[in-house]
């Protein structure tokens, strides 16, 4: 078990992953890895025509996240430096299993495992669970143009997919500890006490893990 933890924040679109990861990185004075989103040249086209642009979109995300996490292993974990990320690499499967079909999905799975099986995995995942109404509110509030026309059925299915994904990670990555945050009740942006509690719980968990190393 590593004494300098790798922490990931996860949740469906609009859950507040990047916001929480950024706040925790500042609070704990640790480095942060942020996924590339708006820089993806296929994102707008994807939301207009999922079937046409899903493979290009997913491959762009996979290659960028692979490179980021490869660098994370070299720059932080190997040098015993704690780091927090606003995603878990598993999210590539969450999305691709929903957007890709047939031969493309099979090819993507093969490439995914080839690239990611030996990448560093988080010691702790903060999973922000939120319902459709909460996610839609936050998506509207952050005003990303390409997200405003998102199919609500797609987002609703994504919520279920994330629940299944966290259950799968819990089984297949037993050394990873998953902490669930109720995004419907906990507002870590507007409520300082809510954020302080999350930060305190995380620090205590890290301390406990170090003590048992």
TrEMBL record:
Keywords, in A-Z order: ATP-binding, Kinase, Nucleotide-binding, Transferase
CDD domains reported for this sequence: dNK
Binding sites annotated in the UniProt record for ATP: 11-19, 138-142
Gene Ontology molecular function terms on file: ATP binding; deoxyguanosine kinase activity
One GO term describing the cellular component: cytoplasm
Name of this protein: Deoxyguanosine kinase
Family: Belongs to the DCK/DGK family.
Pfam families for the chain: dNK (PF01712)
Active-site annotation: 86 (proton acceptor)
Family matches, as Gene3D superfamilies: P-loop containing nucleotide triphosphate hydrolases
Transmembrane annotation, as ranges: none
InterPro entries the UniProt entry points to: DCK/DGK, Deoxyribonucleoside_kinase, DNK_dom, P-loop_NTPase
Occurrences of domain Deoxynucleoside kinase (ranges): 7-207
Enzyme Commission number, as recorded: 2.7.1.113
Catalytic EC class: transferase
Lineage: Bacteria, Bacillati, Bacillota, Bacilli, Bacillales
